[in-house]
Sequence to fold (67 residues):
Amino acid sequence: MIKGSCLCGAVRFEVQKASGPFELCHCRRCRKTSGSAFMAGLYVKDEDIRFLAGKEQLTKYAAPILH
Fold:
Protein backbone atom coordinates (compact mmCIF):
# COMPACT_ATOMS: atom_id res chain seq x y z
CA MET A 1 0.00 0.00 0.00
CA ILE A 2 1.15 3.52 -0.81
CA LYS A 3 0.01 6.40 1.39
CA GLY A 4 0.44 10.02 0.38
CA SER A 5 -0.76 13.58 0.47
CA CYS A 6 -0.36 16.92 -1.22
CA LEU A 7 2.29 19.29 0.13
CA CYS A 8 -0.08 21.17 2.46
CA GLY A 9 -1.75 17.96 3.69
CA ALA A 10 -5.30 18.96 2.65
CA VAL A 11 -5.58 15.93 0.33
CA ARG A 12 -4.62 12.51 1.69
CA PHE A 13 -4.92 9.17 -0.10
CA GLU A 14 -4.07 5.47 -0.10
CA VAL A 15 -3.24 3.40 -3.17
CA GLN A 16 -3.86 -0.33 -2.83
CA LYS A 17 -2.07 -1.36 -6.03
CA ALA A 18 -0.30 0.41 -8.88
CA SER A 19 -1.46 -0.92 -12.26
CA GLY A 20 1.39 0.32 -14.39
CA PRO A 21 5.03 1.27 -14.34
CA PHE A 22 6.49 4.30 -12.63
CA GLU A 23 7.56 6.68 -15.36
CA LEU A 24 9.73 9.77 -15.66
CA CYS A 25 8.87 11.68 -18.83
CA HIS A 26 11.15 14.42 -20.08
CA CYS A 27 9.29 15.47 -23.24
CA ARG A 28 8.78 19.20 -23.80
CA ARG A 29 5.12 19.11 -22.74
CA CYS A 30 5.78 17.27 -19.47
CA ARG A 31 8.69 19.56 -18.58
CA LYS A 32 6.58 22.66 -19.21
CA THR A 33 3.53 21.33 -17.32
CA SER A 34 5.53 20.23 -14.27
CA GLY A 35 7.98 23.15 -14.24
CA SER A 36 10.75 20.61 -13.77
CA ALA A 37 13.24 18.54 -15.80
CA PHE A 38 10.69 15.70 -15.97
CA MET A 39 7.23 14.64 -14.82
CA ALA A 40 6.83 11.63 -12.57
CA GLY A 41 3.80 9.40 -13.06
CA LEU A 42 2.36 6.18 -11.69
CA TYR A 43 -0.76 4.59 -13.18
CA VAL A 44 -3.48 3.65 -10.70
CA LYS A 45 -6.97 2.29 -11.42
CA ASP A 46 -9.89 4.24 -9.92
CA GLU A 47 -10.88 1.29 -7.74
CA ASP A 48 -7.35 1.06 -6.27
CA ILE A 49 -7.22 4.60 -4.82
CA ARG A 50 -9.07 5.82 -1.75
CA PHE A 51 -9.16 9.45 -0.66
CA LEU A 52 -8.91 9.85 3.10
CA ALA A 53 -9.38 13.62 3.09
CA GLY A 54 -9.74 16.55 0.72
CA LYS A 55 -11.19 14.92 -2.39
CA GLU A 56 -13.33 18.03 -2.87
CA GLN A 57 -10.10 20.08 -3.12
CA LEU A 58 -9.01 18.31 -6.32
CA THR A 59 -9.20 20.07 -9.67
CA LYS A 60 -8.23 18.99 -13.15
CA TYR A 61 -5.92 20.85 -15.50
CA ALA A 62 -5.76 19.94 -19.18
CA ALA A 63 -2.40 21.10 -20.51
CA PRO A 64 -2.47 22.40 -24.07
CA ILE A 65 -0.70 20.38 -26.72
CA LEU A 66 2.57 22.09 -27.63
CA HIS A 67 4.02 21.96 -31.10
In short: The first strand starts at residue 2 and ends at 5. The first helix runs from residue 28 to 34. DSSP finds one helix and five strands in the chain. The mean pLDDT is 89.
